[in-house]
Amino acid sequence: MKHISSRLLLLLAASVFPGIAFGHGVDEGTQQFLMDNDGIAIVPFMYIGAKHMVTGYDHLLFLLGVIFFLYRARDVLIYVSFFTLGHSITLLAGVYLDIKVNAYLIDAIIGLSIIYKGFDNLGGFKRLLGYQPNTKFAVLIFGLFHGFGLATKLQEFEFAREGLLQNLIAFNVGVEIGQFFALIFIVLALSFWRRYSSYLQFSVATNITLMSGGLLLTFYQLSSYVTS
Q1: Global confidence as pTM
Q2: What is the distance between the alpha carbons of residues 44 and 95, in angstroms, rounded to a whole number?
Q3: Among 24, 114, 136, 178, which is least packed, fewest CB within 10 Å?
Q4: How far, in Å, are 19, 115, 205 from residue 129 at the CA level?
Q5: DSSP SS3 for 78
Q6: pLDDT for 208
Q7: By three-state DSSP, how is residue 20 classified?
Q8: Is the torsion defined by CA of 80, 85, 89, 95 positive or negative?
């Protein structure tokens, strides 16, 4: 049983850390394309959006926390929809309207969102405050910050206004496609793990690990903000 649970933990880790070298960053090939692009490029922007989400371990860690204790497909769909709505709004508005925010601070808040969800999964709010905050509202609000996180990376490049809206929509569609496939993998891994008693036995350890990852991300981004 321990052997099985260890493999499942590794499987989940692989699903949420596929691109830790890049995170919110942009690889060299993508940078070159974004700098050289002029005009509408629907398919390339969809591809970049999908790749960005699949390698966006901070987004996936948050989603892992969101769906960790969701057992019904309907609930997963509802919560993911709130997250999608939030990050779609700020991604599109942030870039198209050129709303400037500090990338380090936004990424630090994204780290806090991971801490929040792990703490929430452990029942921390009920124990400390005596009540449960509205989880759907929290997912929506944090989704807004995640969208700004995506926007700050695109804002590093000076896009031509011609075709900008179409390219942004294509990028966002790509993000949703990448999120869909990543979620399928995570949900399947969780569903398999839930067949075993180790799922609940290791749920506390898993969410503490989730919070630790969020804490490291927050500390790193705040340190970068102070030293930049």
Answers
A1: 0.84
A2: 17
A3: 136
A4: 36, 17, 22
A5: helix
A6: 96
A7: coil
A8: positive
Whole-angstrom distance, CA of residue 17 vs CA of residue 139: 21
Answer for the pair 150, 88: CB distance below 8 angstroms, yes or no.
no
Closest CA to 169 of 75, 4, 41, 17: 41
Nearest to 114 by CA among 223, 220, 188, 31: 220
Helices (H), the chain: 2-16, 28-36, 42-54, 57-67, 73-96, 103-121, 124-129, 135-154, 164-193, 198-201, 203-227
Angle made by CA atoms 63, 64, 65, in degrees to the nearest 5: 90
**Each residue's pLDDT expressed in tens, for the chain with a length of 228 residues:** 444 444 444 444 444 444 433 444 556 666 666 666 667 888 888 988 998 898 888 999 999 999 999 999 999 999 999 999 999 999 999 999 999 899 999 999 999 999 999 999 999 998 988 888 999 999 999 999 999 999 998 888 777 778 889 999 999 999 999 999 999 999 999 999 999 999 999 999 999 999 999 999 999 999 999 998
Count how many Cα atoms sit within 13 Å of the Cα of residue 99 in the half-sphere of its side chain.
16
Half-sphere exposure of 215 (CA within 13 A, CB side): 8
Structure tokens, 210: 């989730």
CA dist 7 → 29, 61, 88, 133, 201 (Å): 34, 18, 34, 34, 15
